[in-house]
Amino acid sequence: MQKIRLLILDDHILFREGLTRLLETEVEFAVVAQCGTSAEALHLLEQHDIDLVLLDFDLGHDTGLRFIGAAAALESSSRILLVTAGLSGADSAMVWERGVSGIFLKHGSPATLLEAIRAVVAGRKWIDPKVAPYPVTRSRAGGPEVDELLTAREQQVLRCVFEGLINKQIADRIGISQSSVKATLQTLFEKTGVRTRSQLVRFAIERSLETDQRQRIGHR
């Protein structure tokens, strides 16, 4: 069986070693290497065939953004799963725009992390619900800008859209009919004023960034 080749980039050596031990208990995974800096990781990408990089966003005096950009410049085919303690709305928007395949928060369980790795390697997106941007706003003609919080169902469907699932997969995931999925998507389109799924995802990311910036200004 072809093993999934992993690279761990995290500046905390105890976390790296603990994660390595966890992953090596699964026969399908092979931890090719682990390191603590972007420079080391980029060198390893050039030396080895890596399927997935498990990347911490906060790397001490550096952030994962530089590694993401440099890996793209190398035209690396490795997917990237952020495994991080936390991420602001602004940083979340930036990493999605730069092509990461998933975001997993470190408070999650080991079993959930393994699920996230398998999903990303299979070509799907993985988004921790505490990171995914759901608040949206729009300006009605002749009226003020209105904050609209999505319902729980709309949040579930939007999360699935982020992951690239089709309507049938969304229906199976949530436990509703495909017609209900279509109706919810239509409501999302009406609330956001967009017409396609890709525009819907883009809109949510942009509004998440705006919300984060307003919160930062409010805290000053």
Characterization of the model:
The protein has 220 residues and is of the alpha/beta class. It has nine helices and eight strands. The strands form two sheets. It has a six-stranded parallel β-sheet with strand order 2-1-3-4-5-6, with helices on both faces. A two-stranded antiparallel sheet has the order 7-8. The longest helix has 22 residues, at 197-218. The radius of gyration is 19 Å and the shape is globular.
Question: SSE layout and pairings?
Answer:
Blueprint: E1 4-9, H1 13-23, E2 29-35, H2 38-47, E3 52-55, H3 64-73, E4 79-84, H4 89-97, E5 102-105, H5 110-121, E6 126-127, E7 136-139, E8 145-148, H6 152-162, H7 167-174, H8 178-192, H9 197-218
Parallel strand pairs: 1-2, 1-3, 3-4, 4-5, 5-6
Antiparallel strand pairs: 7-8
Helix pairs in contact: 2-3, 4-9, 6-7, 6-8, 7-8
Give a quick set of tags describing it.
220 residues, alpha/beta, Rossmann fold, 6-stranded parallel beta sheet, two-stranded antiparallel sheet, 9 helices
> What is the CATH architecture descriptor of the largest domain?
3-Layer(aba) Sandwich
State the major sheet: 6 strands, parallel
The percent range for strand residues is 15-25%
Name the helix and strand elements from N-terminus to C-terminus, one letter apiece: EHEHEHEHEHEEEHHHH
Based on secondary structure, the structural category is: alpha/beta
CATH H level, superfamily name of the largest domain = Response regulator
